[in-house]
Amino acid sequence: MSVDAEPGRLKTEADEPGWEVDPDDDWGVAVVATVGRQLKLRREAVGMRAAEFGEAVGYGEDLVYKIEGGKRIPRPEYLDRADEVLGADGLIAAMKEDVARVRYPKKVRDLAKMEATAVELLSYGNHNLHGLLQTEEYAWALLRTRRPVPPEDQLEQAVAARIARKSIYDRSPAPELSFVLEEATLRRPVGGKMVWRQQLEHLLQVAQLRNVEIQVMPMDRWEHPGTAGRIQVLKFGDGTAVGRMDDEFNGRPVSDLRQLRILELRYGIIRAEALTARESATFIEQLVGET
After folding, report:
1. Comparing C-alpha atoms, which of 183, 179, 273 is closest to residue 225?
2. Sign of the CA dihedral 226, 232, 236, 238?
3. What is the pLDDT of residues 88-122, one digit of tens each?
4. What pLDDT is stored for residue 105 in this prediction?
5. Neighbouring C-beta atoms of residue 82, cutoff 10 Å
6. Which of 24, 145, 168, 291 could form a disulfide with 197 if both were Cys (CB 3.0 to 4.6 A apart)?
7. Under 8 Å between Cβ of 131 and 139
8. What is the pTM of this model?
9. Is residue 114 within 8 Å of residue 242, measured between CB atoms?
10. pLDDT above 70 covers what percent of the chain?
C-alpha cells in the first residue's frame, strides 16, 4: 500500500516503498527495463522533459528517471497516467499485466507457473491451509503474523500473488487437486471469528468442485508420516513431477523418481489415515456450527 503524497507535492521514493526491482530476478529486470525504455522514448518523442512529464503525472523528476532507467517498478496508476499524458492510446497501459507479475516474488511466480501446467496436485498441510484454499481475508491475517512485520505494500503484494494462483480452478481441462488438512489448521481462528468462519465456509464450497478432494486428518491419528512436515507433489502432463517435504531432502524441491516415490508413498498413507471427503465435509460443517 503506497503512501500518498501531500496534495500538490510530487511523489518520491519515500512515498512508494517496496517498488524496487529485485536484481536477482532476471526476467523482472528485463521487463522493467523494457517498460522504462518505452516510457522514455515516448516522452522524448512528444518533446517533454523528465521534470515536465513528472509534474504532469504527479511524480518527482528523480523518480521518473529511475522508472525510465529500469531501477523502479512503475505502479499501475503511473502507467495509466503516462498513457494519458503521452497520448499512447492504451499501448503503455497494456504493459500493466507484465509489470504486475514482476511485483510477485520470483519463487511465487515459479510456483504459480508450475501450478498452471500441473494435471494433478497433492498437498498435505500440518500447520496452515494451502494457499489455494485461503480466502483473501484469511491470507491477509495469516501474513500479518510474520515477524518482523513486513511493510504493508509487501503484504499487499504477497496476498495478490496468492489470490492470483487461484486461476488454477478456472482451467480446462481441470487438474485433479487433493488436499489433506490437519484438524489443528481448521480449529485455529486465524483473523478472528468472522474471518475463520468464512474460511471454513469457503472450504466447503471448494470441496464441492468435482476435481477437488479435501480430507481432514483428526488430531487423534498421529501414527502417520505427516508428522515430519508438509508434503506437496505436482504432476505434469508429460509424466514428470516435482515435490517437496519439509523434513526430507533438506526441504528442497525434488524431481528424481525415487525421491518422488517416497513422497507419494507417504502421501498415500496419510490419505488412507484421514477422514473420507464426505466425512471431512461433515466435520467442517460441524466446526462452522460451533463458530
Report:
1. 273
2. negative
3. 989 898 888 788 777 665 655 666 678 888 999 99
4. 58
5. 25
6. 291
7. yes
8. 0.67
9. yes
10. 91
Q: How far apart are CA 123 and CA 105, in angstroms?
A: 22
CA angle 181, 112, 128 (to 5 degrees): 25
Better-predicted residue by pLDDT, 278 or 127: 278
Roughly how many angstroms between the first and final C-alpha of the chain, as a whole number?
32
C-alpha cell at 214: 479435501
Q: Is the peptide bond before 74 cis (omega within 30 degrees of 0)?
A: no
Q: Which three cell numbers stand for residue 94?
A: 497494456
* CA 164 and chain centroid, separation: 6
C-alpha–C-alpha distance, residues 19 and 153, integer Å: 9
CA distance 269 to 274: 9
What does the alpha-carbon distance between residue 105 and residue 109 come to, in Å, rounded to a whole number?
6
Residues 6+ apart with CB under 8 A from 113: none
